[in-house]
Specification:
The structure is a homodimer. With about 375 residues, chain A is an alpha/beta fold. Chain A has a single domain, classed as Queuine tRNA-ribosyltransferase-like (TIM Barrel). Helices cover about 45% and strands about 15% of the residues of chain A. The longest helix of chain A is centred in the C-terminal third of the chain and has 28 residues. At the A-B interface, α3, α4, α12, α13 and α14 of A face α3, α4, α12, α13 and α14 of B. Chains A, B: Pathway: tRNA modification; tRNA-queuosine biosynthesis.
Chain lengths: ~375, ~375
């Protein structure tokens, strides 16, 4: 994997770069649609490629491990072959999902014992097994196994959790060094900075993570319920410590304005279920603000969903028709909303990149944020 | 509307023709995907046009009347404008849906009083109101308001019902003559032959319907539970009576082999929810036979869904992946199965047409039917 930092904004920490993996290049800053079980919900791979113009998608290790399972993924020749997505893929480590199981998991030094949400069967994830699983899935970028503490967390718990994450990271690095990619192409590990909302811990964690000298770095444990101001504070602090010439990935974030604010702090990569999950519930993100398409006010609004987002879903269907589809419970409503939202997210980060390259990002961002937050 | 009968098969009653409406031409025999509430379930209009290559779709008057309702449809300028489908549209009369409500409707000479399945509100459909509603929806081909008796029906009930359908037909014709299309384009009425599974009644009804000299004719009340042999017998009998130079539409039919058998009897047009509804449940129709994709046997079958159906869904996704999508409850599974099935249906009737034009239909049909029925 290679990362070229092309430019940094004069009036913010925003950066434009180019990330190159075995399955192709990614222009940063980038947003990665989430394909939990190997499918970005309600969107075909053709639509993702040609309409959304996604450059990289994410898969969830926890979900893929349970279903279809490693036997099928291995027989298929990895996730790229299985789902037919030949551009880059990133997999998370399963840590976040496993910790979300709350009552159905137990954390030990060795790893985490958890029960499947599907059939209640018991499984053990260790840093080593999670590396092996990600080898079998075959993503281009793979994530270290971390513990993601909830918000709020006590300082002592957050510190212990962070230290465990650091010890697990070293086991991940060791395991990867001892094993080979399953399908011949390079797989690059990103470690994850934790530390909850404590500046002291985030500083320690970012310093520790930076010291591992991995090819890219991630920030986890944010956007888990804390106020946005705290997220930005932690993110800014960590970005100052993480190496400049390596990509920075803020996990699980967020709204369109969250993306723009965090880009200004030096983030290069994002993923979030928001454009698809909220889309399936009728929430649309547009250049003019946020639309709840289920609202009665759109019933006879025959203007297109969003003229400014260049996408067939946004330009060829009206708000009235989309509202009708949601009112009638038609699957097509979820499809169109998902495609529109993802297209908008990809075009938003593309526009951000152009502003960074033009040296005008900070002013553009300041003007855009309140507009994106408008409730239409 | 114009219908050119191009050729009739030497060894069967199969015909190839060209139907021309205000929104374009339709090659017959044709299959019409069902877009109940203005959307063919789980398929975008772009996919319908470019991948499925649908030439005409169907809308359901009952559903569209209830939701989005006539006010919205009228404000939109009709269904073509509302859903963005600029090719031909046919609407049913709501009769079949209303009679399916069973306990929640009451049939009188005037019309049918029924309760909405959505909110229980009471409504009256009369031949006149149904013509007015179809004017407002704006379909190119509109259907007469008929009573569709259940199977089995007593002879006396079936006869009375048929007679009511004939009286209602005359009221439909009168109403249409008194009113104008709402959006300037021609709307053509198809009357419906009824008579349950009684040859005597079907003969009377076909004769009565033919005497109205409408531009096209339909056969209703079949594929409602009767044995396939009875459906073919009734259909063949009616086709012998209906005028040769007008299109014949067999409503609500059916399986791929039902299509081929009825084409051999002289049918030109079909509609059915089967490719989409069964697709959403994991049943795939292919040139080699029928697949239940949920079956464990497909878990590691990495061959494409159907090599012989020319469609991105059929050619670019594997059976193993599609099975996984159904196992995981992913919407994408329903989308791909629907697109594949519809593409297959459209390519099946296209192949039938080519065989008719080549004069080889009967032999081809005889070879195809058992193959299509194979359980894979």
């Amino acid at each position: 994997m290679n990362f070229d930092l092309l430019t940094t904004d004069n009036n913010s920490q925003a950066r434009a770069g180019m990330l190159t993996t075995a399955h192709g290049s990614i222009e940063t800053p980038i947003f990665m649609p989430v394909g939990t079980v190997g499918s970005v919900k309600a969107v075909t791979q053709e639509q993702l490629r040609n309409d959304v113009q996604a450059q990289i998608i994410l898969g969830n290790t926890y979900h893929l491990y349970l279903r279809p399972g490693l036997e099928v993924l291995s027989a298929a020749g990895g996730l790229h072959s299985f789902n037919g997505w030949q551009r880059p893929i990133l997999t998370d480590s399963g840590g976040y999902q496993v910790f979300s199981l709350a009552a159905n998991r137990k954390i030990k030094e060795e790893g985490v014992v958890f029960q499947s949400h599907i059939d209640g069967s018991r499984h053990l994830f260790t840093p080593e097994s999670v590396m092996d699983i990600q080898r079998t899935i075959g993503a281009d970028i793979i994530m270290a196994f971390d513990e993601c503490p909830p918000y709020p967390s006590e300082f002592v718990y957050a510190r212990k959790s962070m230290e465990l994450t650091h010890r697990w990271l070293d086991r991940c690095i060791k395991r990867l060094a001892e094993t080979q990619p399953a399908y011949g192409h390079e797989q690059t590990l990103f470690p994850i900075v934790q530390g909850s909302t404590y500046k002291e811990l985030r500083t320690i964690s970012a310093t520790e993570i930076a010291a591992r000298e991995c090819a890219g770095n991630a920030i986890g444990g944010l956007s888990v319920g804390e106020p946005e101001a705290e997220m930005y504070e932690m993110c800014g602090l960590v970005c100052e410590i993480l190496p400049v010439h390596k990509p920075r990935y803020l996990m699980g974030v967020g709204t369109p304005w969250n993306l723009l604010e965090n880009i200004a702090l030096g983030i290069d990569m994002f993923d979030c279920v928001m454009p698809t999950r909220n889309g399936r519930n009728g929430m649309l993100f547009t250049w003019q603000g946020v639309i709840n398409i289920k609202n009665k006010k759109w019933a006879t609004d025959f203007s297109v969903i969003d003229e400014q987002t260049n996408c067939f879903a946004s330009n060829n269907y009206t708000k009235a028709y989309l509202r009708h589809l949601f009112a009638a419970g038609e699957i097509l409503g979820m499809q169109l909303a998902s495609i529109h939202n993802l297209s908008f997210y990809l075009q938003l980060v593309k526009a951000a990149r152009e502003q960074i390259l033009a040296g005008t990002y900070a002013a553009w961002k300041a003007a855009m944020v309140p507009q994106l937050q408008t409730r239409l």
